[in-house]
Automatic annotation (TrEMBL):
It comes from Lactuca saligna (Willowleaf lettuce). The keyword Metal-binding does not apply. InterPro entries: HSP70_C_sf, HSP70_peptide-bd_sf, Hsp_70_fam. Transmembrane segments: none annotated. SUPFAM superfamilies: Heat shock protein 70kD (HSP70), C-terminal subdomain, Heat shock protein 70kD (HSP70), peptide-binding domain. This is Heat shock protein 70. Residues 58-109 form a coiled coil. Keywords: ATP-binding, Coiled coil, Nucleotide-binding. The keyword ATP-binding applies. Signal peptide: none annotated. GO terms for molecular function: ATP binding; ATP-dependent protein folding chaperone. It comes from the Eukaryota. The lineage of its organism: Eukaryota, Viridiplantae, Streptophyta, Embryophyta, Tracheophyta.
Amino acid sequence: MFTVFGIPPAPRKVPQIKNCFEIDDNGILTVTSEIVSTGVTEKLTITNQNGRLSKDEIEKMVKDADKYKHEDEEYKKKASAFNALEDCLHTMKNKMKNTRNRKKLMKMEHAVADTTKWLEHNQAASADELVRMKEYLESICV
């Protein structure tokens, strides 16, 4: 285990730490973490000594990682769509403050309320459904 210190605050969606995991032919694992904004790097090397994982165990873990890669990508896609929808809601709420057109304001309020309620009741929604809701909000905002 190792710890990276001195991570500066950064805006949302800006990568702060870049992690790299490398396994060489001898089963030696090298973990590198870099704070992107400052360039500070920490490195840890794990060799195959007593009490460590065997080569077969490492290969099994790599295969498992490959096996779950698709699930991880789907989860990331869904999280990105969810964040984009929340950002769109926030943007629309800000636009509502500056809108003078009463009819358009009512449409926007209705769309924000519908989307917020939909999000509360559809926590397990797919990435495609989240994208469709974002497109719906954007169509009202035009």
